[in-house]
Amino acid sequence: MSFRTRFALYILAVHAVIIYLTFRLLQDNKVLFIAAEVLVLVSTVIAIQLYREFRRPSDFIASGIEAIKDKDFTIKFVSTGNPEIDQLIDVYNLMIDQLRTERTKQMEQQFFLEKLIDAAPIAILIFDFDDRIATINPRASRLLQLSLEQLEQRTLADVDHPILSSLIDLEDGEARTIKTNGIETYKIQKSFLMDRGFRRSFLMIEELTGEILDTEKKAYGKVIRMMAHEVNNSIGAVNSILDVTQSTMDRPEENDLRHALRVAIERNNRLNYFMRRFADVVRLPQPHKQPADLNELARDVTQLMQPQAEARGVTLACLPFQAPVVRAIDTGQFEQVLVNVIKNAIEASRAGQAVEVVVNEHLLTVRDNGTPIPDEIAANLFNPFFSTKPDGQGIGLTLTRDILMNHGFTFSLKTNAEGWTEFVIIHHPG
């Protein structure tokens, strides 16, 4: 039974007793009886008024509680003229002002944080309390090529992605640098935030590929230019002297010396060619793109490389797409890419093995079933001047890397589970 009901019953009971006693005692004196009844009526009215005054603070409190429950911090009460009630109203209004200020501040901070995360140049993944992906920013979606709908409520172990798969064992507070497909380099840091008293983890993935490649190219470019300058100047002067000296030797007894001079000149020319190949990496121009059919280009390069494959007893075949695959490319540079990649595939194969050039709507793949690439070597294949060949300069894949990146194409080189080594170029339309 509520307080209101109990109080009403109490007032009724008291006044009923008073009316009964008044009737018993004053029924013979009508004047006093009527006066007593009037007093009882006045007392009832006063009791009801006092009850309403007494209830008013409770009503204010109840209204305030309802407003707080509804998270409505705009409702304030006006003064009533009653000092006791006004004191309660002042306290409530002050509390509501503070709550509204804090809520506005929190909403502004939340809005700013969301905008900051969305505009961040690094990929951010935020997890829920069960380490399932709760939200990602646009940069993460572009980097992973996955939407929030594809990642939401999934753990890292549930997502088949080369970056996320390598972070399953990463703990809060740890940082790690990983390299995918031998080129793309990422710095990953895992941390946590406190949400309602519990930890929630988040990942920050920063792509370092462009920065590292720029720094790398500036470093080796400076060295190559300096070396090429010194070698070219020296070789030009030395060959000039050797040519003059050779032209003056016409006596038979000088044949051996003339032969030695010719060998020295040829060696100098090979050294000059050697340095020019290094300089090509630095002087690589931006691609001059024109529409070209990748099917036709793949067939032409396959035919060009056919003698090398036959010399090693390797089967070389081109498998074009059933329709033209037209892309805006620098034909000369892209042809150089295919020459380098097919040549490497042929050299990695033995007699009886096969090299295939496969073109489809979105991929161009050069694959061979020759010697697999070990993981420790795969991570370094595109590093400048890295080579597994005794006489290799490590130039071919560096040029290939730079050409494809200048075209805006993504690529990878690895041996799959079936033992085929695949160089995959993802060619985007446009």
TrEMBL record:
This is histidine kinase. Residues 52-104 form the HAMP domain. Gene3D superfamilies: 1.10.287.130, 6.10.340.10, Histidine kinase-like ATPase, C-terminal domain (3.30.565.10), PAS domain (3.30.450.20). It catalyses: ATP + protein L-histidine = ADP + protein N-phospho-L-histidine. Keywords: ATP-binding, Kinase, Membrane, Nucleotide-binding, Phosphoprotein, Transferase, Transmembrane, Transmembrane helix, Two-component regulatory system. It comes from Fibrisoma limi BUZ 3. GO terms for cellular component: membrane. It comes from the Bacteria. PANTHER family: PEROXIDE STRESS-ACTIVATED HISTIDINE KINASE MAK3, SENSOR HISTIDINE KINASE. It is found in: Membrane. GO terms for molecular function: ATP binding; phosphorelay sensor kinase activity. The chain crosses the membrane at residues 7-26, 32-51. PROSITE patterns: HAMP, HIS_KIN, PAS. The keyword Kinase applies. Residues 226-425 form the Histidine kinase domain.
